[in-house]
Each structure stands twice: as C-alpha cells, then as structure tokens.
Amino acid sequence: MGSDVLTERAWGSASTSDPSSTRTTNGAHGLRTASDATLPDPTPIIPYWSAKRHLTCGNPAPRSSSARLFPWRGSAPGKLKTANAALVLCLNIDVDPPDIIKTNPCAALECWVNPHSLPSHKALEAIGSNLQHQFEGLSLKIPYKPILDPSYEDLRRFCLTLRKQAKDETVCFYYNGHGVPKPTPSGELWCFNRNYTQYIPVSLMEVQTWLGSPGVYIWDCSAAGHLLSNFITFAERRDQDAFTTRGGYADGMQPYMNSLQLAACATHEQLPTCPELPADVFTSCLTSPIDIALRYFIMTHHLPNNITPDMVMQLPGDLKDRRTPLGELNWIFTAITDTIAWTTFPRDVFTRLYRSDLLIASLFRNFLLAERIMKNYHCTPHTHPPLPATNTHQLWAAWDLALDTCLRQLPELLAKSPGVSNSPPSPIISTGTRSGHSGPRGSSGAPNTEKPYQYIPSRFFTDQLTAFEVWISRGGSALTKRGPLSLPLQNGGDRCDTPDIINGTTAPDAALVPRKPPDQLPIVLQVLLSQPHRLRALILLSQFVDLGPWAVNLVLTIGIFPYISKLLQAAGQDLRPVLIFIWARILAVDPSVQVDLYNTGGFKYFANVLATQEDNELPNSSEHKAMCAFILSAVARDFYNGQMACWRERVFDACSERLEEGDFLLRQWSALCIAQIWDSNDEVKVYGVDRGIQDKLILMLSDDSPEVRSAVLYALSTFMGAAGGKGQGGAGTGTQYQLEERIHFRMEVAVATGATLAVRDDASPMVRKELLVLISCLVREWRGHFVVCAWMYWEEDRRWRAGESHTHHHHTEEEVTAQALAEWLDGFGDDEGSREENRVLLSSFFTIFVVLMELTIDPYHEVATLAQTVMDYIFALLLASPFAKLNLVPPLPVDYKPAGANGAHSRVSSAQGSPLMQHPPSPSLSRPSNTLRRTSSFANTLRHLAGGIPFPSNDEARAPPSPVPSSLSRSDVLVASRPPSPNFNIAQYASPYSRPPTPLRDKERDLASPPVSPAAVTANFLPSHVMEALVEEDMVRLRARRREGTHGRRSAGSGLGHAGGSAGGGLNSPCESTFSMDSNVSNVPLGCGTGNGLRDVLPLKSSFFAWCCEYFTEPQMRQTEADEPGSVQYNYQVWRQQRNEQVITETQKQSIVAESSRWDRPVANLHVNSHPLCMAMHAYDPHLVIANDSDMISVWDWTQRKRLNYFCNGNPKGTSITSLQIINQDVGGIIMTGAADGIVRLYRNYDPTVNQGPLQMVSSFRALHELIRVRRGSGLVLDWKQSGGTLLVGGDSRIIRVWDAHTETQVLDLETNCESPVTSITSDQGSSSTFIVGFADGLVKVFDRRLEEEDAIVRSYHDHHSWIQNVKYHPRIGGQFLSASLAGEVRLWDLRVSDTAAQAWDLHHAGLSAFDVHSQTGVFATTSALTPANFRHQRLMLHSISDSSLLSTLSLPTGLNAYSSRPPTPYIPRHTSFAFHPMEMLYAVGQPDGSVKITGCKLT
User: Fold this and answer.
1) Sign of the C-alpha dihedral, residues 36, 39, 45, 48?
2) What is the DSSP string of 925-986?
3) Average pLDDT of the residues in 88-109
4) Whether the Cβ atoms of residue 411 and residue 305 lie closer than 8 Å to each other
5) Exposure winner among 133, 281, 1061, 1097, fewest CB in 10 A?
6) Rounded distance between C-alpha atoms, residue 1046 and residue 1049, angstroms
7) Of the listed ranges 779-783, 923-927, 1215-1219, the one predicted with least confidence
8) Residue 513: in which H helix or E strand, if any?
9) Which pLDDT band, with edges at 50, 70 and 90, does 450 fall under?
10) Distance CA 286, CA 135 (A)
11) CA distances from 408 to 325, 486, 1408 (A)
12) Which tens digit of pLDDT belongs to each residue from 816-856?
C-alpha cells in the first residue's frame, strides 16, 4: 500500500496529522539529533483506531484563554517610530557653570573632541558635527539637527518645528547640559539668553508642550534624575487632564507617559570626572559604544605588549563590515546586548524598545554598556520605563573575552596591516571615521612589503551555536514544572500552549510547561547575518521552532521575521529545506504573515519549489512540497489578493498535478491548497471547471488515506460554496459564465451526487462530516428541489404508515406523489430529453436526501448532529412552503408509532417504490437502509417544528440522538443512558429558527401550519404546481447568481473578508427569495418565498483545515513522548511488552499440559445484574467484557471481582449486540462492538485504573448497509485480524464485507451465494487470506480474498443441517478447523483433503448452546441447550481435539425458575454464553441469572 499505510506507529502521539502514515523523515533537512543514535528500533506493534484523527475527528484542539501567544509585531498604541531628532548642546566652552567644581586634571573630551584645543566657536561646531555623525551611525534614515548653545527663543522655535515635521511620529530630544547649571528639583533645565550673559531656566512643562508626544529624551547632565522624575510627574498630570476633560487624546496622538527617557545619573549624583574618560561618557556609551568599551577595557584589564589607548583607537576595520576586527566586535556587542535585554526584560518591554525602531533599539542596547561602565564610577543611569539592572549579567564576561581575544592581536595587526599608521591620532578629533560608515581608521601612503597579518576571527558565535545545539539535543523538548527553569510567564498570564488536551483529559503532566529557552536565541538571530554560519544557524533554528508554537512565537518576538524574509530573495539550494520548514511553522502559528509574503513576493519562492519536477534537487521532496502547498494555502486563505497571486504563479496547476503523488501529505495539502485558492473566487472556479478539476477530485474519493478523502471533500465543499475562511459561505460554484445554465445546474448536482455515492459508507466519521458540509452547500442553493424530495418522502412515509394501520385507503392517496411527478413532467411538453433530464436530476436530489436521512441517525454523535441541522432546515422549509396548505389526508395521531414488534425488520421502505424510480435501483442508492427507524413519523416531526417544540440545547446537541423516547421505560439499569461521547464532541445543532418558539401571529400560523393540520387552508393549486414553482425558483436563484457575477465581478483590488458574502443577487437567504416577483408561471398564483423568517444556518462550517494546520505546529524532528526512552509512556509500553512476552512464554508451556488435564479449577464468580450473552476476555490484562441482551456493556477485572466500567452501546431498541472484540491488546485495548443495526462502534479508555481519561467513543460506522429481512437473523458478525488490520463483517446480509483498518474503507464485498444469514466468521491469524464462514442453514464455506469475487468461495461443506453456532481454526495444525451446529454436532475439517469431516463428535443430542476452541491449546468446549426437560442446569463439556478424550464435564446451574422457548434476543439463538481466554488456560461461562463463572485448567 505504499507510504499511505505504513501505519499508525505514532499511535500515542499528537504530532502526526495522518495516522495512517508515520512521517519517517527527520524534520526539514533529514538531520538526526544527537540522541537519535541511541534509540531502539520502533516496535512492530500497530495499534489501530488510535491516531490523531480518531481522537479529534478533524476538530482542532481547543485553546484556553491563557494559551494566547504574545503579539510579536508590537502593540499599535505604544509603537514608536522616530521621525527626527534635536541634538541640544549647552556647553558654553571655557565658562564653567557656577554649581560645578571641576577637578584637575578633569574629563575634557566632548564627542571625542578636546574643546580647549580649538577656538571655542570652532570647537563647538566640531563637537556638534561629531555628535551628529555618531547619531547617524545608529540610524542613517533620521535627520539630526544640532542645536548649539541655544537661547530660549531658538530652543522653542526648533522644538516646535521638529514636532510640526514629525507629525504624529516620535521626536528624539538629546540634551547635553555640561556647560549650564544642574537641573532644578522642580524640573527645569537651562539654556542661555541671546547675549550669553544669563542662564535661562526652561520648564519641562514647556518642553512637553513644544515637542508633544511621543518622544525619546536623553538627559546627559549631572542630577539628570530631576528631569526624568519631573517629566513623569508632568506627563501623568497631562494625561489625567486629557482623559478627564476630553475623554482622551485625538487619533494618532499618544499619551505623554508613552515617551521614553534615558538619564545619565540619579538626582543626587554628578557625572564622572575621571580624566581617562570623556566628559560625555554617557553620550559616548550611547552613540559610540565600541570606542568607549575598548577604552574602558584597557583601563580595567592588564594586557601584554604594552597596548595603549592610542593603539586601541587605531583598531583597524569598519563597523559595518563583520569580516574586520572592528566590525566583528560591533557584531558581537549587538548580539550580547540583545541577549542581555532578552533574558532580563519583560517580553512586552523588549518588543517595544528593541524591535520597534532602529534608533531606539540602538540607544537602549548601548544603554546597557553605559550602566555597566558608569556604575563603577558611582553613577547610576536611569530610564523610563524603568529597567532591571544588567551590569552584572554573565554575558559581560563573554564580551570581555571577545575584547581580550581581539586586542591581543592588535600589535601585529598594526605592525603588518597595510594602510594603518603607527602615529598617534589627532588630539582634536581622535575618531573622525570611527562612528562613520566605512573606511579604515587611519591611512598611510607608504606601502608595506611584509605579508599582511591574518586576523583570527573570534569563536564567540561558533561557541554560542554549540551551546544552543547542546540545549536542544540534551532535553530541550522536555517539559518541567513551573519555576525558575521553566518558560517564564509573560504579562501576567500568557503561557505556551502545551498539547495536554489531545487525549481528552487533563493528563497527569498537564501542569508541566516547556523549559526556559536558551539564552543564545538572540545570538542565533545575529548569526543569520553571517554567510559561513547561516546554514548551521538555520538548522538549529528549525529544530527550535519544531518544539511548538511557543518556540515559534519566541523566535518571532526576538525579531527573526525580517531576516527570514530576506533569505527568500537570495537563498541557495542548500537553504531550501530548512527555510521551507521554518516558514511552515511560522504560518501555522501566525497566519497574518500571509500579507507580508504577498507584499514582498516571497510566496513565489514556495510556488517555484512546488512546481519543480526534479525530486533529486530537494531532500524529502514530497514532504517539503507538501509544506510549500500548506504555505501557499495559508497565503490564499481569506485573502483575495493572495488567491489571485497564487493563481498567476500557476500554483493551482501545480497542486492539481500533485494530486496524484504517492505521498499522502502532499496529496492532502494539494487538495487543501486548491480549496483555499478557489474559495469564493469565481475566476479561479471557472478556471478549475475548464480543466475538470472537480471531476479529478471526485475520483480521489477512493484514496487510501482518510485525511486525503477529507481534504478532497473540503476542496469540493469550497467549490460548492462552503467558506474556507472566516466567512459564512454561499453562492454555490459561482457564476460559471462559460457554461450554459442547465449545464451549470447539472454540474453542481453531479458533484454532490458523485461525492455522496462515493463516501456515504466511509468508515471514518471525519470523512462523513466533510460530506455533510458538501451536501449543505447543495441544500442551500437548491432548497426547492430538496423541499420537493422531503414532501415526496413524507407522502411515501405517510402512505406506508396508513397502510400499516388501516385496511382501507383511497387509491388516489397511494398515487399522489406519482401523479404530482407525472403532472410536473408533463409541463415539459413533448421534449423527452428535457423530461428525462429533470426526472434524473430530481432522482439525484432524492438520493442525496435519503443519504442525509440516514446520516441523521449516524452512530457518531457529531455526524448525526450536523445532519440533523441540515435535515431540520429542510423540514422547516417544507413547513413554510405551499405544500403545508395541501390538505390531502386526515392527520395521524401524535403518538402514532409503526406497527410490528420489530421496527428493524417490519418495514419495507416505500422509497424503493418511489415514482422517481421507474426502474428501482439497488437499495443502497435509492433508499435508506431498513435499519433506519425513527421514533415518530415525519408528520410528528413536522408538527413539532411548526408547533413550537423547543430545539435541543447545546448540551443536548452534543449528545447522541436517543433512539428511545424518554417516556418509555427500559429494562436496563440505566434508563436514560447514552453511549460514551467522542473526545472532541464539538459539533452543535443549529436551529433553523432565530429564537425559541413564541406564539405565532395569524399570518405566520397560516404559513407554518403542518401538512397534516386539520385546520389547513384548502388550496386551489395542486402539488405539481408547487413542484413547478419551487424548481423554477431555484433556477431563478441560479440566474440571479450568474447575473450578479457577470455584471459585478470583483476587481483584483479587493482585499480581505471576501468570503463572507454570497453572490446571490438578493436571493442568498431563504427569507430574501423574490420568486413571486420574477415568476412567469401563470398557473401558480402564490409566492414561493420558502423559508420566510428562517436563519441562514447553511452551509455548514468545516474545521478540517484548521485541524490540518495543527500538523505544522507539532514536533516532527524528535521522538514522540511514547517513543522517548525514559518517559512514562515509553516505560509503560516497555513494561507491557515484557509482561506480554512473559505471558506468552508461560502459556506456551501450559498449553501442552492443558490438552490432557482437567478444566474444573474455580477461579472467580461474578454477578453482572443482566443477561450476559456476549463475552470477550483480554489476552494480557485481567479484563472481561460482557454485553447483555440489549445495549449495555460492562467491563470487569475478574481477578479483583470488580466492575471497572458500565456503559450503553447506543444500538436501537429491539436490537442487541451480537459481536464483541477487543483489539490492540498488545498496547492496551479498544472494545469493538457489532450490533444488529449494522453498526460497528469502538471505545477507548475503558479501564479507569490507568488514568487515561474518560471512556470515549473512538469511531463508529455502518459496517453492513444492506441488511436483509429474515425471520431469524444473526445481526452483525465480526472477525478481527490484528496482524493485518482487517475486519470481516457478515450477518443478515448476502455479502461479506472486508474493511481495512489502515484506510478505513471497504476493500471487498464477497457474495455469500446463500439465502441464509452468516452466523460465524473466523480467519487465520497468520498471513493467510482465507477465512471460514458458517451459515444458518448449516453450510460452511471457505473464502479466499485473493481470488476474483465470483471465484472467492473455494470450498463448501454440507454435513451440518442446522444453524452453525461457531467455526474456529485448529490452534496447532494449520489447514484444519472445527465447526459446531445447534444440533449438537462438532466437526473437524481438513482443507487439504476431501469435503468430508476428518472427525465428528455428537455431544449434545438435545441441542448445543455455545461452542469455542482455545486459541493456544487443542481443547474445545461445548454447552448444552436449555430444554423444557432440562433448563435448571446446563452441561459443559471440554474435549481434547487430538485424542478425542473428554477432559471435563460440569453441570452448571442456570438460575432459571421457568423455561422460555424464546431466547433473550432474536439474534442470538442461545440463553448462555461461553468464551475461552485468548492466552491463559481459562474460560468464562455466562448464565441467564447474570452469574459469570471463570474456571481454569488444573495444570498440576
């Protein structure tokens, strides 16, 4: 079967989107983590019905409110973008301020200029020019205006001009007050008068008024804390006044408190005057950090070779060139300060300060250096918002190491590097180009003939990448308890989303969270800038984002997005796999980046990869192309521009070509990408129809993967009008202007009919859910046809019920539907082609309607709930249609129920004789199965809808439909019990009415009266007139849709939100129908505005795409928790495997002795309070599963004599459970039941002692559709083959159906060629394809699945002449099997010899009740039938097969006081039950009084 069914080895994992195929590749690039080499080989055990789709049924995991991820783009209200800057210098060179006493010697340099070496006015200009260059080194895009020794008027004028130019953006205000008095405690800074004879105070209130908000303020002066604190006080006052008086600020203006401040020192502190440091050391740290860091380093560290400050200032290189020493140091410094900020500051503060604006990020990054240096000189820089101290962060040691490594090479660099002068720098401007953008820091014209010194780059980034790799490979994915070593909480509650909901319960480790992320994460971001390290960094980054959405969000918050976007424009072939992997994770976590990919054209990168034909260019080609398809589908989802861009790049064509690929994931995402591209997009739908994509998709509904089948149905649903995004959906297949009107109509019907017939019997409820979404689209657009079908079905149902209860009925009543159909077809005149076309189309609608009826009683709760929503919508339309005014027959009683003791076998559906079917087709295509039973007639259903019966609440809608009315009592202990709910029972019923029923007004009551109301108005029109009107109204709706699309098609400029509308031209909801205005049908004098006042509940909304997207949020590169050595799940499975092997070893030894030993050792006695008719024992756990005569199942621990669970199976009253199996016994167990209604149901977590969560229904499906009507049936007979994942199903049917658990599809139907029902099936547990079937007439047949269907019966045995109770293979000899009939005969057959029995036993002359063969030893057991002469005791006999000796005979009391000739259920011809243990030498016997005796073999 290829990779599609390599099987569900990730059975316990939440990380596999398609459980029918485990992803064997290791992530994006095929690399193995360090721990992979020591992992053991995966176990060959294949558990079925245990994959993610069975736990979720296509529903995405619900996200708790606390699992929201942090907004990485930054919040809009507090976002800052600097527009311009004012650099205010109040130096007044050569004049010291009166409140400052300078030391001698004293710090003198301002912006690396000695102000006393030049005339004062030239020195001031040089300082201003240098300061501007230094700020330009931080951000070139901002205009900087030096304001030198300004007067009050100049300062005011410049500030007002800056705000006017900046508009609503941020203004940077730098203030150097080294030549004026310190700021006052009241918040005043100083400038000059025009003659420089006085210091003029300027209040911060005035500065705030001039500059407005927002702003960035830098205070470089002594006592700068006064300015910072008073600014906050004034800002709070202004903001409070604004909110009090005006209710807030105008749009675009931010509160003053949003402004940022950096202050050089506190209120009581003075700037350092150390002569080795510049006077503006704070400004130097902020604007030229490398220069001041080098100078500080040589002041505090002893270096060899007599390295002087002058030598340090000549360090060669360019700050912008990372290959040079100076550029490398700048690169390292950026990485270290980013990392310090990331690991110290809260997430929102980091995003606002370091990821919103380049200038602000540089200032606050360099502030960390200022804090480190200035605190050593008793000066404490401050900021607003206040930041935690970082001067003792451990990464400063890495910075010192990088400086040390670089400076130790400095002498040789200066000696041997050409273009570097050894002369001391100018004392005036020592770093003319240091803060610049290019060029060496000194030059010499003299050539150097020596070989240049080869600079040895720092190992900083290599070592940090190694540390990051160690974190990932040594438990980076492990979870831990919340604490200092866990992922920190952000902003009071945001946390990561741990997948603890997938098992349907809060797991024991639900309190565990991811580990604290590695400190090197921001450094990895910086490494992306380096070509040599880029691939390694991307690989490590991909391994990190693979840990989950929380990891992706961290990476985005740090700021990877701009870098990863640029890599799409110039990426090499080696980067392809890892880039695709990372982008898939990003889009899965944050789909909003679709706009970025569209605007930058980055989506073309993935479109080219998807269209590539050569697979050898890309490792794991199919998987990476599937990721590309996902990325492109995310670009197109809910985004018209993205759809059209993908279409123009031929993504649609590439996806259609990939639909035939061998990899299931690529097929799945190709279909989903098609779905998103043509979702609500008429142009693309027209393009797809022209190329027959819809027909190609229908052919794929036989795909082996349930995920692919669901994806195909999802694509067809969006084609038919379902919403692929957030919209409501509608408008069918769009305009299809290239098609004629009738061809358009036939195409839509053909798509829905083809899909319905292809997957109506699919075993996967996820697929059936998607089918309902598709059908709901057709119902919405062609509601008139469905109303006609509902009326015809109702009339047929009413006629059948009337025939059951009345012996006389009118001939006209019998033919009302046939007459209406004939009259309607007569309206087409002599055009035979048109008559036949319309009859076939209505027949197709009728077929879909019947399938929809069956789905309303689907055994899977979600499917039934959604189908009831669609069906009740149709019923409500029927009530609102003119059919409701046709008073054809007297009403039936409200409590009327069909006659007959058994609903499942008493009714022959009248649908088969419908006038729609001139030649009745096969039952599977024309009518619901005769197991379809409703507790009330259609009349009652319609009366309930019209009469105001409340619709189910959300809680009731989540529960399965109860097959028995609450007013009826049941013999079970649980009267109102319901079967277990699925894990994610999310689907909710949607009423067609807007609110709970209220008393109707007269007009509404007339409109909504039920068809059977005795007060119905006598109509002057016929049913055929109503049919004609309703059908014509559907066509009018189609014409309006086509007309609206032709004349008002969307322009290419439309954007988001297009999916919500419906191109119906005013006809997109039932209450907006305008047929009465457009009608040209003169003989129908009525307005058929069907559904006046109904809610638009259709089309249904699918969650399948969101569920599929979860695949890319789940880890793919690492072992699942169950496969991780040392984990709790892994250890539990290892223990189970060892325990199972021990059981096998022990039982193999015991099986030899047991063939000649007595089997009468008492083990346990249980009392089950019901009639145990079916029993199954677990092979390894001490579990006994018992089903009673109705629908109750109990699970017992027979060693503890304790009942573990008790639940309802949910089969209808009058039926019973006829088969019971326990599958997946090696790894736990799932209970599989088969009931007489033809349904197979599976349940997990039946053992509460292992804390796996509540009991849940895993899956359910109709295993046999065509159950025949027999006087004495066998119900449903199952045989499960664990080794091949094969389920054989027979029973009251003339076929035996073979189901494949891998694909959840029926793979074969074999005709039994027998009129009697199948009573037993057994298959060889080896690799053989043969199986043996017993029949009610005594026949035993051998089938071979490898042969053609007509040749599948390879042998028949006729020795038995009564009901075959059981057939079993010989446990030791291949090719031999045993059979037993109710007459008491047991036969041993050999397939290799003649058709006569090799051995025969006639053990019970009065009849046999039960027969079984032990699967490990040559022993079989029989129990006698209960007879009027002997019903108080039952004889149990155990025989050896090999020597025909009788091993034990027991007489067991039945507990009956009177004999009953009728068995407890008509499907099981016995009163007692018997079952051998699959492994141990034990057996269980169930008696009518509810007692179960477990007995063993005396081995000693």
Assistant:
1) negative
2) HHS--TT---SS-HHHHHHHHHHTPPPP-HHHHHSPPPSS-TTS--SSS-TT--PPPPTT--
3) 85
4) yes
5) 1061
6) 6
7) 923-927
8) strand 512-514
9) low
10) 9
11) 12, 39, 99
12) 888 888 888 888 877 788 888 889 999 999 999 999 999 99
Residue 1472: which of 1387, 1417, 1404 has the closest Cα? 1404
Closest CA to 1115 of 511, 472, 477: 477
The pLDDT of 467-486, averaged and rounded, is: 76
Among 18-32, 74-88, 679-693, 890-904, whose mean pLDDT is lowest?
Answer: 890-904
* Residue at 1061: amino acid letter: G
**1484: confidence class by pLDDT, cuts 50, 70, 90:** very high
Rounded to whole angstroms, the Cα distance separating 27 from 29 reads 6
Q: Which amino acid is at 773?
A: V
- For residue 287, is pLDDT > 70? yes
Note whether 338 and 522 are within 8 A (CB): yes
HEC string of 862-911? HHHHHHHHHHHHHHHHHHHCHHHHCCCCCCCCCCCCCCCCCHHHHCCCHH
Residue 492 has pLDDT above 60, yes or no: no
1450 vs 1438: CA distance, rounded Å = 9
3-state helix vs strand vs coil in the chain, percent to 5: 40, 15, 45
- Report helix, strand or coil for 234: helix
Question: Cβ(1477)–Cβ(1144) under 8 Å?
Answer: no
- For every residue of 1463-1479, DSSP letters joined together read -SBTTB--S-EEEE-SS
User: Which ranges of 167-218 does DSSP label H, i.e. alpha helix?
Assistant: 204-211
CA dist 986 and 91 (Å) reads 71
Strands 144-148 and 82-89, bridge-based pairing: parallel
Tell me, what DSSP letter sits at residue 1328? -
Beta bridge partners of 1234: 1219, 1240
Which pLDDT tens digit goes with each residue over 989-1003? 888 887 544 443 443
Query: Tokens standing for 1414?
Result: 């032990």
Distance, in Å, from the CA atom of 558 to the CA atom of 522, rounded to the nearest integer, reads 6
Residue 881 confidence (pLDDT): 84
More confident residue, 1126 or 593: 593
Using DSSP's 3-state secondary structure scheme, residue 236 falls into helix
Residues 6+ apart with CB under 8 A from 608: none
Angle between helices 621-636 and 664-677 (to 10 degrees): 20
Beta bridge partners, 1400, equal: 1387
Cβ neighbours of residue 649 under 8 Å, at least 6 residues apart? 603, 604, 607
Amino acid 1334: pLDDT: 93
Cis, peptide link before residue 1466, omega less than 30° from 0: no
Q: Please state, in angstroms and rounded to a whole number, the distance separating the CA atoms of residues 441 and 319.
A: 10
> pLDDT value at position 1040?
86
DSSP code, position 1183? E
The residue type at 1467:
Y
Higher pLDDT, 1412 or 484: 1412
Is the preceding omega at residue 214 within 30 degrees of 0, hence cis? yes
Determine the Cα–Cα distance for residues 316 and 429; give it in Å rounded to an integer. Answer: 17
Mean of per-residue pLDDT scores for the chain:
79
The pair of structure tokens assigned to 589 is 């976590």
Output the six-digit token pair for 1154: 């047991």
Is residue 19 within 8 A of residue 52, CB to CB? The reply is yes
Longest dimension (CA), the chain: 133
User: Taking a C-beta distance cutoff of 8 angstroms, is the pair 197, 235 a contact?
Assistant: no
Reply yes or no: is the peptide bond before residue 385 cis, omega within 30 of 0: yes
Mention every residue, 6+ apart, whose C-beta is less than 8 A from residue 639: 594, 595, 598, 1055, 1056
Tell me how long the chain is.
Answer: 1500
Query: Does residue 535 register a pLDDT over 50?
Result: yes
Q: What is the pLDDT of residue 1105?
A: 94
User: Distances in Å between the alpha carbon of 1403 and those of 355, 1449, 1480?
Assistant: 87, 11, 25
What's the CA gap between 268 and 297, in Å, rounded? Answer: 27
